[in-house]
Amino acid sequence: xIQHKLTIMRQKExxxxxxxxxxNEIALLMGxxxxxxxxxxxxxxxxxxxxxxxxKVSGLKLAIVPILRAGxxxxxxLRTLVPVAKVGHIGLYxxxxxxxxxxxxxxxxxxxxxxxxxxxxxxxxxxxSACDAIQMLKERxxxxxxxxxxVGAPEGVAKVQETHPDVDIYLAALDDHLxxxxxxxxxxGDAGDRIFGTK
Length: 199
What we know:
Elements: H1 2-10, H2 16-34, E1 40-46, E2 51-57, E3 62-68, H3 75-81, E4 86-87, E5 89-94, E6 101-107, E7 116-120, E8 123-124, H4 128-138, E9 145-152, H5 154-163, E10 168-174, E11 177-178, E12 184-185, H6 191-196
Parallel strand pairs: 3-4, 3-5, 3-7, 7-9, 8-9, 9-10
Antiparallel strand pairs: 1-2, 5-6, 11-12
Helix pairs in contact: 1-2, 2-3
């Protein structure tokens, strides 16, 4: 289903409404994989028929940290899965000449270093923004970080793996390469513009 939904998102005629809804749905589906190994503990409960030992999340707190602005498009899907998750924000934009990320905003939960963190950004192109966001979190004491993207380029994956080998990367698709403008090919265009209808 992720691949089917991603195919529709990639099509240039897909409008912002459908693009947003599909991104939300894919984020929800990917959330199951990203949280697959969250620790569980045994608890005693009573069903309408009997008492039993069941599993529940073992006190782990979750934070979703979208890289603004496109990463916002993945937050609602993850919050459907984990409604109590706190949401932080890291604002980065790409300098169109250097293709390097520029930080303009950072607001995180006060106990961010104690949380299981999922960074969201639909596109993992050069890896610059992802690496900077991860570094910002590590500087605040965070150790349990995962990166969830929709589409990635081999160049971006390699950079994140080299710079932050302890951070697992989750992708819906690994595309072919970056073009001369550092856009993912075949990609899906500028995810932020397609989410918010700004182009």
